[in-house]
Amino acid sequence: MERRFRKAALWGATVAAVLAAVGPFSPAHGVPRPDPTSKPSPRGMLDAMRRDLGLTAVQVRTRLAQETDAHRAAATVRRTLSTPPAGMWFDRTTGKLVVAVTGAADAQRVRAAGAVPKTVPHSRATLRALVQQITGRAGDGVAGVTGWGVDERANGVVVRIDRTRHTARTAAFEKTVRELGARGKIPVTVERSNQTPRQQGGTVVGGERWMPGSEGICSIGFSVTGPGSFQGFLTAGHCTLTADQAAFGKDGSRMGTSNQGGGHSVNGREGDLGLVEVDQPGWTVSANVAGQGGAPVTVTGAQEGLAGMSLCHSGQSSGWHCGEITRVDQTVDYGNTVIEGLSFTNACSAPGDSGGSYVTQPNAPKALGVHSGGGAAHCGTFGGATLTIFQPVGEALEKWNLRLVTGSP
To answer: Over the Cα atoms of the chain, what is R_g?
Structure first.
């Protein structure tokens, strides 16, 4: 969404200072407490990336170094470009950040930042204007249409359609979108699949189970602190719909209160954001996310995800799996709600992972987002293309004036 780019400069400039003010922590947990000698395991994260991305150990380390450089370049690009770029993505073939720009001056700024410029005809504002037209035509939803958004690599837009739910109205909507694109000579890509994304509700180390009252099972995202003595964790908004609901940990004991006061849950256009306060004796918060085999991964900060970048996901149902960000800033129609500003990955997931953690960079893992939903393909169980969706973490931190609990890698 455009708001993501309006916030990017502020987010990038403030996140380091904000996170530096927070001491080491570990996601909320109950008695018995985890072994204090347990150490974070970047090795386990590297092994999972080798398994899920099909890379050798040397290739994993090379890629991570390239992605670190690309993230630095992205931060510089956001500060120096005259207008938001039409798109940015990591090219795994060249190991470079690619930035879509519309003018020669910005192209030079991109080169100076250490990235590769790609001159395109359509600005970000033009593409977002078309996306908003599509949103207006979709209204409360169109049968068979599961979402839409900017297609950064194609300098156009993308519409996603579930062919199993295709109707005459679906065809009419697709025709309208193509006509809207043709007016501005903007490419329109239609992605067809046999899957409709669903919010994967089920259930405070990130990725571990929590239970919102009697509503089901979800996963913990990231521990946070807030104004006063507040401590709690981020999760998915569709896990926290009921105000002032008791929240229970994986051991069954009460850990806190979900959506306290009724103002800490969003499940609509603005996002899929939820907040649980950890307010019961014997529970604390930490910087840990459950990694491969349960070995903890320590979160050191937050980062905005870029298409093409690698990441790993921790959820109470599927465990620890890695993949790549395939798209950012997408609108998703879940059937029961339409949400903007979500990111897609090919890291597998399963029902019950909702709210779980997405992190990157095993030597200094950064929080990327919390799990929102996915398709029918669950870690090879059902076959088909993997579709996994997460809510970027920055929206919730800014909305509720929160700080991540962080530690040292």
So the answer is: 20
